[in-house]
Amino acid sequence: MNRTLRNLLALVLAGAATSALADITVGVTLSTTGPAASLGIPEKNTVALLPTNIAGQKVNYVVLDDATDPTAASKNARKLVTEDKVDVIIGSSTTPTSTAVLEVAAETKTPQIALAPFAPAADKAAWVFQMPQDFGIMAGAIVDNMVANHVKTVGFIGYTDGYGELWLKVMNGITAAKGIKMVATERYNRTDTSVTGQILKIMSANPDAVLVVGSGTPAVLPQATLVERGYKGHIYQTHGVANKDFLRVGGKDVEGAVLPVGPILVAEQLPDSNASKKVALNYIKLYEAKYGADSRNSFGAHAWDAGLLLQHAIPVALKKAKPGTPEFRAALREAMENVKEMPADHGVFSFSPTNHKGLDGRAVVMVRVEKGAWKVLK
User: Fold this and answer.
1) CA distance 240 to 236
2) What is the pLDDT along the chain (378 residues), one digit of tens a residue?
């Protein structure tokens, strides 16, 4: 090969390397199988709708399934960072799997956008941004509704994992402050097929209301058992059940359940002045055009909000560093920390170096299950 050809080949290879470096790689780990599949599948569906070009840079998405298993989520995160060289990780779908991902994200200084609420350790919190509403915001809305309905005593049945633990901790604090007594506390696993024993213990305490803390279809079981056993008090669920599968599987057993949701789920019922309505309707149009009428999903919308956050932050980070480098990951984190008043499906996000949860009271709408649909409470 003569010198001219060698030089030409070197230029071509250098150009290819530069082009590859310019790509932004987003790692995604979701629970598309396992107990949380009804959360992870719409999230995966939404990732397919996210832009593949932001600020003139190609964006690649590497999507993995963690099967609702924290160990698998940790392995996925490790692979995404070490093999795929991702600039940011989106995921996971549940509190335990998101917590597992953060261990890797914080260690490798890779920004994480979590699609489940959780309470990160203080020394790791700097690397994770949370899309779902914080427990305190949602629990506060539930307790306010209890007070309005003259609830004085409440029973609790929730997951044995971090999701249940955090909800119980927050509820204990808020109910005590509002003069509501927690008279029964029971737990169950996501894979349990019976909670009769737990429900009988709760009913023996005769609470005015029961809060079921679960997510997706596994949250049907406690409410169905309450109905089967003739419980006549108020039944509350958390925003973890805000999808059609919960309504489909629960049927008549979940009628009357009251819960807090994000604006996306009831966008058409909101006033035009609501900051999320226009954004939410746009997402609904895109999602339902691809996946069918009335297929919108609160969990998929968390993934869409993650995409909106990246669309705000990436152009800023690109001014400071190139993708594929530690400098770019740091710049991306800093850019996300400076996003202010960003309208999204679930509310309006404003982050800061000390606030990576971002949402306020505008992220909550109280609804009741009526005739197999979500109805905004007036």
Assistant:
1) 12
2) 556 555 555 555 544 444 445 799 999 999 999 999 999 999 999 999 999 999 999 999 999 999 999 999 999 999 999 999 999 999 999 999 999 999 999 999 999 999 999 889 999 999 999 999 998 999 999 999 999 999 999 999 999 998 999 999 999 999 999 999 999 999 999 999 999 999 999 999 999 999 999 998 999 999 999 999 999 999 999 999 988 899 999 999 999 999 999 999 999 999 999 999 999 999 999 999 999 998 988 999 999 999 999 999 999 999 999 999 999 999 999 999 999 999 999 999 999 999 999 999 999 999 999 999 999 998
Instruction: Identify whether residues 128 and 142 lie together within a single domain.
Output: no
CATH of the domain at 346: 3.40.50.2300
Structure letter (DSSP) for residue 239: G
Q: Say how far apart CA 128 and CA 105 lie, in whole Å.
A: 8
246-259 in b/e form (b: 16+ CB < 10 A) is: bbebbeebbbebbb
